[in-house]
Amino acid sequence: MATDSRALSGRAGPRASHTPKIMLTHGRANQGIETGVGTVMLGLGDVHSFDDDPHVSASLYLLADDRNTPWAPKWDGNDVRRVHSASFVPGTELAITNFPDGYIRNGVWVSGDQHKTGVTVVIPIYVKAPIAPMLLSLPGRGGWLTANVKRGKGGPGAFGFSLTSGELYLSFYGLFRRAFSCSPDTGMTHNLVKSFQPHVDVVGATPWAPDPKAPCDSLSWGIDVEWAPIQTADIEHPVDQATLPPCDGPGPNP
Fold it and tell me: Is 234 exposed, middle or buried (0-12, 13-18, 19+ CB in 10 A)?
């Protein structure tokens, strides 16, 4: 299970990347993922043991929309998928989302300590017309990502991070505006996103070691996923595909 170019270009061996077949919602989203819409792939570095391995780095990639193409998945463990160019820092070959301190314990890969640097997770969200996704960028901190990798078969996992109320607003405003068909009534979207802010439950600066005297300013969140193995993915030749832009600017002052 590796993200190096040799493994991901089809090198044989007991390695695989894992893609979540469950993303945010269980009904319509799952049906789309089954047919090949874009989702995310977790590519693991060199694995010496799927039971326990103290050093397994990883990167998270966006997969291209492979519906009605030769790359459409069968989810039988032998799929070869294409990677979306939005996975990478513009002008580089570096994935936006990296986990250098990952490890495997008891058959579960854990992303490691993100307390010092945080991590940005980019997720494709198909809003209404499933033609092209919006890219939801979540700048998390004090969080983790897990994946069941026992014997390379995949299984359940989870994302868990925290966002400040301002980060949450900037991340979700454009998504909700698109969900409302870019209605000119921006106040409706503004009030909806603002409604999340009273539910802050952690201290954003130090979510791993909260100060009981400090006021909460961030919201913890989580996403359940189910990882399924694929054979390989081509990270050397990323695919440019259209994504839905925000309806307008960042919205009113949060």
Answer: middle
